[in-house]
Amino acid sequence: MIEIKVLGEPKALKRHRMGRGFSYDPSAGDKQTFAQIVQANAPEEPLSIPLRVEMIFYFSRPKSHFGTGKNAGNVKPGMSLYHTSRPDIDNLIKFVLDSLNGIFWKDDCYVSQTNAAKVYTTGTPMTIVRVYESDLPKQSK
């Protein structure tokens, strides 16, 4: 198992932009930064086996989730643990998978299982990624 922690608000993949004769990836800089941060945890050679990837995206709570006055700093009762607004979880997952192409795996087609969650934190926002060899049972012929 490989575990990676990337501090900072989680990033989502932004849609490619097309123009006359050009294509622009607005997430290119963010993906490059993400890849540089995780490089120290990368395997010597990119993996080319079926993989399971777990991702937890920790977002800062908005100010409206906290009390005021003597309750400042305390989360109001009834505030959800789960982050249910944008960015969408599928765009967060795609950002991570694309960012780690060629570093952790040869291509993200080797990722055969994913599990992901978007949650709030009162601590440091971050993205945690865990990479495992896929544990699906082998099919018999």
Describe the model.
The protein has 141 residues and is of the alpha+beta class. The protein has a single domain (2-11, 26-39, 47-133), classed as 60s Ribosomal Protein L30, Chain: A (2-Layer Sandwich). Helix content is 16%, strand content 29%. The chain has 2 helices and 6 strands; from the N terminus they run βββαβαββ. It has helices at residues 28-38, 89-99, and strands spanning 2-7, 17-19, 22-24, 51-60, 111-121, 126-133. The protein has a 4-stranded mixed β-sheet, covered by helices on one side. It has a two-stranded antiparallel ribbon with strand order 2-3. Helix 2 (89-99) links the parallel strand 4 and strand 5. Helix 1 (28-38) packs across helix 2 (89-99). The protein starts with a strand and ends in an 8-residue tail after the last strand. The mean pLDDT is 92. It holds the Pfam family RusA. GO terms for molecular function: endonuclease activity; magnesium ion binding. This is Holliday junction resolvase RusA-like endonuclease. One of its GO terms (biological process) is DNA recombination. InterPro entries: Endonuclease_RusA-like (IPR008822), RusA-like_sf (IPR036614).
CATH architecture: 2-Layer Sandwich
Placed side by side, the strands forming the largest sheet appear as 1-6-4-5
Low-confidence stretches: none
Could you tell me the CATH topology label. Answer: 60s Ribosomal Protein L30, Chain: A
